[in-house]
Amino acid sequence: MSYQSVNPYNGKLLKTFEYLSDKQVEAALDGAALCFEKWRQTSFAARAAVIAKAASIMRARVDDFARPMTLEMGKRINEARGEVEFSSNILAYYAKNAERFLAPVKLHPTVGEAHMESSPLGVIFCVEPWNFPYYQLARVAGPHLMAGNVLMVKHAGCVPQCAIAFEKLWIEAGAPIGLYTNLLITHEQSEHLVDDRRIKGVALTGSAAAGRSIAARAGQNLKLSSMELGGSDAFIVLEDADLEHAIKWAVWGKMYNTGQTCCAAKRFIVVEELADKFLAKFQAALAALKPGDPMDEKTTLGPLSTESALVDLVRQVEGAISKGAKVVMGGKRIDRPGSFMEPTILTNIKPENPAFREEFFGPVALFFRVKNEEEAIALANDSDFGLGGSVFTRDIARGKRVASRIDTGMMFINNISWSDAELPFGGIKNSGYGRELGDMGIQEFVNKKLVRVASMEAPA
Ligand code: NAP
Q1: Domain locations in the chain?
Q2: pLDDT for the residue numbered 1
Q3: Do residues 373 and 399 make contact, with C-beta atoms less than 8 angstroms apart?
Q4: pLDDT tens readout for residues 230-262
């Protein structure tokens, strides 16, 4: 199989790209390793000039980047434009702040003086998913390039045009050859890269299955890795919530990117006083969404990224139903060309049902009714994932107390799991480890080196 760009709105094949040969991968790796030796000596100001230039190119040509995304993975065009702008912001943020984040930190030993400095590691290999074809790349490129590392990136099989556009961006921004390399490669070639001594770290964003495989490989090689994996975020509505406010976020949190977001709201946990009203309003809002061309700004429901994503999700829903889940709405593919799925709500998902522990990556909401706050917290924590989550209440102090008791990497009060350039993003449990974005994101692949000065006599 080669990399294939297919429009999920109508199933048309747009372009195919061959895998690189092993020889080409080897040459690219040589180039990256060579580039690192110069880039590591390049000043923060000179690095920032390249990264800021890439940010400004993206901002100036939003549509040029957004359109291939809509064409090859079906993101609605306005969301695609938003993603391009956000990616530009992330690059600009690190161009501006990296030197401050990585400044030496003075220590206070009892004898002499000491500091910690942050030096780059080398070539970092990144494996990235299709659901945010540029944002995911910006999340690794901004921090790690500013830290002095160089990147080799294996993007997902269904978004080769976006992958290539992002590589071209760096050439246009004046990056030295080898600073950012896009690799159209197989899983097997990815594994060999992880083994290669020139690769010094591995960052993966994707499913728990991919994370297990690549993290194990990195572990065998004693290489640093960061894993940004799936989630099944709880959306908790307490009895004192502003219902209208919560409904708007529920719809956005579930349906943004057609539900194909790691930190999408996936488990709706509503206290019984509000449960019936919430469910009725939520269902009505989802029923109002209209499938259409994601290139049309008026479309409110886009396709899933690929035909196989749709087939797998419908099968997963059928599996949940066969084990006792009840369908409130949806559950099937929409009878029209393209990979469209009905917005779906499932209830009665008992812990014995495998669906209880699965991630549903698409427009499928799992709805749970609970007695009170305690039950909501217990249910939210009864998950193998631990990415984000949200709690809706008019009492902010109560919201913070609940947030503190949920076992995830991120919690949001009266809004949904989302990211900003300056806020660390990541999870625990099967949602992975390590953080991207913010100050923490740039610390993942640097050598925290101790330097001590103490002119004392050696012990006799
Ligand atoms: P995926 O199947 O795991 O793919 C992600 C990337 O990993 C792709 O580039 C894929 O390549 C590659 N890959 C998969 N198995 C591999 C292996 N054994 N060796 C080398 N590379 C491998 O995930 P997806 O379906 O594209 O993305 C959705 C998942 O990502 C969801 O679980 C979602 O929650 C998660 N996600 C997490 C975050 C976060 O920040 N925590 C953000 C976005 C998405 P191919 O396409 O060539 O198979």
Answers
A1: 3-229+431-451, 233-413
A2: 62
A3: no
A4: 999 999 999 999 999 999 999 999 999 999 999
184, 158 Cβ separation under 8 angstroms: no
Say how many Å lie between the CA of residue 205 and the centre of ligand 1: 6
Give the tens place of pLDDT for each residue, 74-122.
999 999 999 999 999 999 999 999 999 999 999 999 999 999 999 999 9
Closest-CA residue, ligand 1 atom 10, reads 156
- Which pair of structure tokens corresponds to residue 90? 């992330």
What CATH number belongs to 3-229+431-451? 3.40.605.10
Active site residue 262: yes
Q: Are 150 and 134 in contact, with CB atoms under 8 Å apart?
A: no
Q: With 0.85 as the threshold, say if the pTM is over it.
A: yes
Tokens 């695609």 identify what position?
Answer: 80
Q: Is 358 a catalytic residue?
A: no
Pocket probe for ligand 1: among 2, 73, 131, 417, the residue whose CB has the most ligand atoms within 8 Å is: 131
Asked if pLDDT for residue 342 goes beyond 80, the answer is: yes
Q: What distance in Å separates the CA atoms of residue 166 and residue 173, rounded to the nearest whole number? A: 11
For residue 378, is pLDDT > 90?
yes
Ligand 1 atom with least separation from CA of 213: 18
Q: What is the CATH number of domain 233-413?
A: 3.40.309.10
